[in-house]
Design brief:
Layout: E1 2-9, H1 13-26, E2 30-34, E3 37-42, E4 51-58, E5 61-69, E6 76-77, H2 85-102, E7 105-106, E8 112-115, H3 121-133, H4 135-146, H5 152-176
Antiparallel strand pairs: 1-5, 1-7, 1-8, 2-3, 3-4, 4-5, 5-6
Helix pairs in contact: 1-2, 3-4, 3-5, 4-5
């Protein structure tokens, strides 16, 4: 999971928070609880990927975080790249609007991207299902999961799905003869 992070130095944190909340409200972001984390969310993911923005203050430095939830695997996706490009562009525009209205100085010149472990839930579930139904496709999902460098969990599940696929394929061959 990755997020795009912008750090800004502002003069008045209380006034800056009011401006941020007003802008988020104007773009239809609502305060939600996302796995114990308070974030502002726009959209529910029915037609487009839901967009998320979180802000926090550390003295006079405000940290803005923006991301979208990727369709296929349900993990966070930074605001760069082709997948879900329209929601990403919209979220970037909101962050840019906040940045422009705060009259704040950038603490860093570039957008920072933090990487966290990605969730590969959909690939894991499909891999297990196909391991039973069509083992060769289960092996493909297992290989996909094994090659993920962003999640040790995915690698473990990948090995398990490949082994399950091979066992199911072997048992089905023995039953045919």
């Amino acid at each position: 999971m990755s997020r795009t992070i912008i750090q800004l130095e502002c003069d008045n944190p209380n006034e800056s928070e009011k401006v941020i909340k007003k802008i988020l409200s104007s773009y239809n972001y609502e305060l939600k609880d996302n796995n114990g984390e308070e974030v502002y969310q726009c959209g529910i993911g029915f037609l487009t990927a839901p967009k998320f923005i979180k802000y926090s203050f550390n003295g006079n430095v405000v940290t803005l975080e923006g991301w979208v939830r990727a369709f296929a695997f349900g993990g966070e996706s930074e605001l760069k790249g082709f997948v879900a490009s329209m929601p990403k562009k919209s979220c970037r525009k909101t962050l840019q609007d906040i940045q422009n209205n705060l009259n704040a100085k950038n603490v860093s010149n570039e957008l920072q991207i933090t990487a966290e472990e990605k969730s590969h839930t959909l690939a894991i579930v499909l891999g297990v299902i196909f391991a039973f139904l069509i083992p060769i496709i289960g092996i493909v999902f297992g290989i996909y999961l094994m090659t993920r460098n962003d999640s040790e969990n995915a690698k473990t599940y990948g090995v398990g799905i490949i082994l399950l696929s091979v066992v199911i394929w072997g048992v089905s061959r023995m039953l045919l003869f």
